[in-house]
Specification:
heterodimer, A: mainly alpha, two-stranded antiparallel ribbon, 5 helices, 7% strand, B: mainly alpha, Rna Polymerase Sigma Factor, Chain: A, Arc Repressor Mutant, subunit A, 9 helices, elongated
Chain lengths: 178, 190
């Protein structure tokens, strides 16, 4: 007979933990199966030994040691608790006023936020003013030309997305310190 | 000798504090052995068990405002839960392994022929103690509370913060493992 599936229930049965609805089936199986009865007996012996561990005497010294150590630590714990209390009180004294000021500051900044969210038609309008310039990183077109003669200044022309804006960069090729 | 009939000037705070302390000491005296025993079974080491018990009672003192210290029985589930948690913390911190202890037991001197037939109770208890040390921490906690301390499945579930079905599964597995371990060791010795 394959009794592996009964093991869990037998272990519970041995300790009196088997729910009532599974109890009858397990008892019926135990009556029919000698192997499982032996297992139940062995488990009961284990149960008895485990419960005997409860009655094992503890050394009096252990309990006395713990009590002495705990009572010696109590003043330190209380001092620590007081320190923690003051630390929290101080932190609250600093953070609370800041937290109370925060809503007032966000209210003051609200109009600025509205400016940033300009309606789409403004953004799509031709770039007539400086404010409407696209803020994307400008694309730089490099026009290669013949290598400049020594001593001749180098002119770099940076063309942005906005045709109205061209940046000229005059570079002096002389090394520093000359 | 103190003069009779003279009331000492005790402030309300001091009075509360000494009441607290007295109640705390009462609980400690009442529960310290049980807490120590659970810690000893969970940690398998007397020194660690004492450290754990000390931590448990210091936590009790710290949280005395939330507990009714006059109701020792009502405080027990809280104490046992903290004991289990503290023991798990200590065990993880120390990274203690019981494998060596088991090896020592297995390689120990052979049992005399008379003992082979009826091993003495002390030896059997030692085997069970070692077997407990082989269990996983959750199974061990469930088994110690249920079978060693004799708490009900419901109480164990409440202490461990799990369902009764989970506790039943843990204790049945643990019982089978203990039985397997002890019978394997007994077979090897004989």
């Amino acid at each position: 007979m394959n009794c592996a599936k009964w093991k869990i229930d037998i272990a519970l049965y041995a300790g009196g933990d088997l729910p009532a609805k599974r109890l009858a089936r397990t008892v019926a199986h135990l009556e029919a199966c000698a192997g499982c009865r032996a297992l139940a007996d062995e488990l009961r012996v284990g149960q008895t030994l485990l419960s005997e561990l409860r009655d094992e005497p503890l050394e009096d010294m252990m309990a006395a040691n713990v009590r002495r150590r705990v009572l010696a630590r109590l003043p330190i714990e209380e001092a620590g608790a007081a320190r923690r209390y003051w630390r929290w009180a101080l932190a609250a004294a600093v953070v609370l006023p800041l937290a109370l000021m925060l809503p007032w500051r966000t209210e003051k900044q609200a109009p600025l936020a509205r400016v940033k969210q300009a309606p789409p038609q403004v953004a799509e309008a031709p770039s007539a003013t400086l404010n409407a310039v696209n803020v994307r990183r400008p694309v730089v077109h490099r026009h290669h030309r013949a290598k400049p003669q020594p001593g001749e200044p180098l002119l770099v022309q940076l063309v942005t997305d906005d045709p109205n804006i061209v940046i000229y960069w005059l570079v002096d090729p002389k090394p520093q310190g000359d | 000798m103190e003069p009779q009939g003279i009331a000492l000037p005790v402030t309300a705070y001091q009075s509360d504090r000494s009441d607290d302390l007295a109640a705390f000491e009462r609980i400690m005296v009442r529960c310290e052995r049980r807490v120590l025993r659970i810690a000893l079974r969970l940690l398998n080491n007397p020194q660690d068990a004492q450290d754990a018990a000390q931590e448990v009672f210091l936590r009790l003192y710290k949280h005395r405002g939330r507990l009714d210290l006059d109701d020792a029985r009502g405080c027990e589930p809280w104490l046992f839960r903290v004991t289990v948690n503290v023991c798990h913390d200590i065990a993880r911190k120390r990274g203690r392994s019981v494998a060596l202890e088991d090896a020592a037991l297995e390689d120990g001197p052979a049992v005399s022929p008379s003992a082979q037939h009826g091993m003495e109770r002390a030896q059997q208890l030692e085997l069970v103690r070692r077997a407990l040390g082989r269990l996983g921490e959750k199974e061990r906690a469930a088994l110690v509370l249920r079978d060693v301390e004799g708490l009900s499945t419901r109480e164990v579930a409440a202490i461990l913060g799990s369902s009764e079905a989970t506790v039943r599964s843990q204790i049945s597995t643990a019982r089978l493992k203990i039985r397997d371990f002890t019978s394997r060791l007994l077979r090897r010795r004989s």
